[in-house]
Fold each of these.
Amino acid sequence: MPSDMSLEQTPAERRRSKVRGAIIDAAERVFASEGENGLSIRRLAEEIDYSPSAIYKYFGSKEELIDELKEAFFKRLLSRVDMISGTDRPFHLRARACVSTYIETAVERPHHYAAAFSNAYGSNTGNVWPDMDWETFMQTNKGRAFGLLVDMVREGQSLGVFDPSLDPYLSAKSVWAASHGLAQLMTHLPQFPDLRPTNTCLSASEFVAFHADLVFRGLQHPAVLPHTDPTAQD
């Protein structure tokens, strides 16, 4: 079923969107098989039987195309998280689902996920992260996704579920780092969730749910331990 946006587009706009989508899909395929170094406008032209000049009408450079790949991944993630956020499910289920959705979206299309974080250090910056101010970052899909994570922490704090002393931004960064690490492990080592010294099998989805639950509990109020006197005798 066509979306409201597709119905509002003119035939020329729909064709342009279709071609852009085909180019991005082809870029993901080339990235998957040949890596970032193998991705070029000429190589894409061969992949989808277009002329390089035709592709340049949509993307001015390889760098612009890679930026689009990055934005496209987080756009897909945002649409999924938006659906979760818009439900009437209890907060603890929505919060866990947000964490799980990030990992599942990454594992579903691992090469696109790899492209979303490719070339993290600009070619002319050595080992220095490229400058990007907060406002610029938050205007990207990646920034918007991070903003939703911050909002989740704040909502949990307002509901009395999460520890109010936690900094929402540091907490969101920590949750992102933990989830990114698991996503990387599962895309590079698919058997990782089942690595354990027993014969009990654990599916990938079960391990992701375990991870999401552990992250959620880590943000909750710390357990209050009974006071103990270190000088007391057993």
Amino acid sequence: MIHPTRTTASVETPTSSETSSKFKRRFMVRLVAVFIGGMFLDGYILGIIGPVTGLIRPDLQLDEISLGLIAAGPLVGIFVGSPLAGWAADKFGRKPMFLVDMGLFLAASAAQFFVTSGDGAVIQLVAIRFFMGVAIGGEYSIGGPLLSEFSPPKLRGRLLGLTLIAWYVGFMVAFIIGTVLHDAGTPWRIVIGTSTILAFVLFIARLGLPESPSWLITKGRHKEALEIARRYVESPQMRDSITEEMDLRMIQDAQAAKSKTKIKNASFGMLFSKQYWRTTLFTSGFWFCAVTPYFAIATFADDVLNQFGFGGGWTGGVGLSALAAAGVVTTVLLIDKLGRRILTVPGQWLCAGILLVIGVWADAPAILVLVLFLAFSFFNAGYTTMTQVYPAEIFPGHLRGIGMGFAASFSRIGAALGTFALPWAISNIGMGPSMVVAAVVALLGAILSQWLAPETKGRTLAEISADFSH
């Protein structure tokens, strides 16, 4: 514990029939499931577009620019939606924004069924997928903090990491479903609109979820936070963590009253203050460098592998996604045993080396190139798991939403750039130089993590943010 002061109110588990351990466990399963579902949708909408480009291109008479805009539309939406949703979650609460976010996703997903043909079709499709991205951006900056604030420290890494497994599985499932429906002659509007079904289920499942005790504490609503903790929190370690956050807030309020100042509400400017700039730099830069090469390579797996003389299709698209999912699973199994840093830094150095070899070895055997790409997918996904863990852990409670939202937004600059630019780069500078550029991005991420990546295993959120934010 970092604060010896203890509040007079108790957060002990009630002995009456007010709640039960079974009820609390069901709640945690539900919370994890609805957030995992949102991340599955993220991967799904980004993966579903690849298999149907062959249908969309002739129907809408797309050129490379239009195709790139459609593919990158959700990523740009995430760029806009993540920080705005994070700001709203810190201001208005996790609970209402978590539901509003899925409502937006449901509406945008259903709109895909009604895209018309003709000159305006591309604009419609880009706009719809942009708003889907806005909603998905909210999943990062609302769902991530909400889950971390209910998760016991000894399980927090695994629970947050599970969400990225869902992302990769969603991407892979989308590729499989898209390919099967494409081969069956299904209209492309139906294929990309399949996400509406899960969006509806998740919207219903989110009704009635409670507010985060940590958020209530940042607003001084301690009695409500204690009541929710009594009703929903089973882990003694997590109850201690909530009490610790309450103690810290009371100390901050007392200090502010003594100095006759007011604790500032969350703002983007606070992310770059002397107190929090390292947190912002690390989470944003690390996330950017982790996802940029993957999005570029995985979205256009067929084109990339064909350039190196190895057929894409099921082998490429599913293979890359399957190895990525395996990398995340491996990390999730180890994260709360080995810690965060050892699973973050070495993998980045390795992936930078792999991409460099692919880029400079022009005459490498096709089978070796495939093996290297699969290895890249595995290790890249392993440390990319930490993009769901670190931002939700090291930002303090009053900045957790906006901080994670900003980091997610900044990362999508690179993801959108990679997705949009790779087809152009392959055509104009060649595959080898394109892979060298990707290697440089991975190298920058390795340097940043070597410098700033902290170890947060088993620590409470209050301890982490206090240690990392000065």
Amino acid sequence: MKKYKYLFLLVITSIIGCSNLEEQPIGLLAPEGFFQTTKDIQTAVNGAYGHMTHEDFWGRKMSLTLLLRSDMVDIGDPTTSSRRIEHNDFNVPADNGMISGYWNRVYQIIAAANQAIAGAELVNVPDNQKNPITAQAYFVRAFAYFHLVRQFGDIPYLDKPVTDAAAAGSISKTSTADVYTKIIADLEFAKEWLPNTQDSRTIPAKSAAHSYLALVHLTLGDYQKAYNEAKGVIDNEGVYKLGLESDYQNLFNAGKIDSSLEPIFALDFNGFRDGDNGQDYQAALTGIRADEQYGIGGGWSVAVPSLAVYNSWDNRDYRKDVSFDATGVFKGNVEPFTKFRTFHSRAVNRPHIAKYTRFTGVTANNNGRASQHNHSMMRYAEVLLIAAEALNEIQANSAEAHGYVNRVRGRARNGTAFPADISGLSQDAFRTQVLEERKWELAFEFKRWYDIARRKLGNQVFNASGLEGAKTNFDPNQDYLFPLPADELARNPNLLPQNPGY
């Protein structure tokens, strides 16, 4: 369902970055003249949604960055852009093109949300009519800042439309702690006012705010609040119309995902390739080069799992079958991954990510990137795992916490006896287990890097025994944060100092 796939500009001061604010207007329409009804608030919110599937954000740049920085995905094509390789190798300069590419786009998402929030004040209807719509903008703003603060730490925080470019160009950074305080406040507003359900999971409902509050508190290490929020979602499973999808494969099937109860908030991809001005890509440069099996022209072999990820994943786990393509079709013949490079010089002889290439729906081809598969940014299985992880930190050897993991594992069996239920684990052993469960359940869904960073696992997962072998450039004193974009610092020295080590 694609109702939100356009960009929205009310005034020329829609933000691009924090100090590079010039933009050519599509038209001039002052907010005072535009915002008359609740439909106008929704139109402004829709502009924020439109930015989210852009190539700059989840279409490629941010999603690929997160994928490559994890310990599960490596560069497959060594001739790919150096700006991607820099993240994979933890050798990222302050002018890295991936970061500068999506930094501006995230602030455009924020700008559209701010415009909707400010515009809502001009709409003269009761709060109970407009706040459920305005709450979408609060959710979107929190969602965008939550990505930024986890990547950069202290960042510029804007909570209203930019009407003075000079003032915005001299803004200072807001502390990480204060950004999180504002994110939580936005999500609390959203949780209060969003309806229990929406017509589509691509529009946030109360469950989305509830779930992201749980993840924010988990990230901050406030485990009691994280558990309370996650448990609030679980206790309202029926009210929110949530549940685990019976077949794990359906979560990655464009023809079935929209009717599933598992997605809580999803990005709406429509299979339309909008040129270099906004390519609706899904997902980020995966798939087997020259592969014929899905009729999409093969893939790109840029983001490819390390062989150790495939070999260490138990073959009895159904999620492994869904997550990987270990064979391809070339010239009409089925071939093993050990021969992939035989059929294309830029291919790599490893199993590839299959979650986003197997059932793309109607696609504008281009190697499957222009897909109809809506991406689940938060799904119910993750809420169960958040509750389990948080409760374990509050109460060791909790049967309730074990039960949440076992519920997720139950689906992974797909009618077999593996993976078995867990019970009686110590606090430390369970902590390790739930992080492992997140690694497999959410494999290649752009979550793993954030888990590594929040739990400070870098020295553990990037050493010689890690899934990708030793990442000798990884520095825990530097690499849990990204560098602030060099061009932003040059334009606005008030954003100094640069993050440590860059």
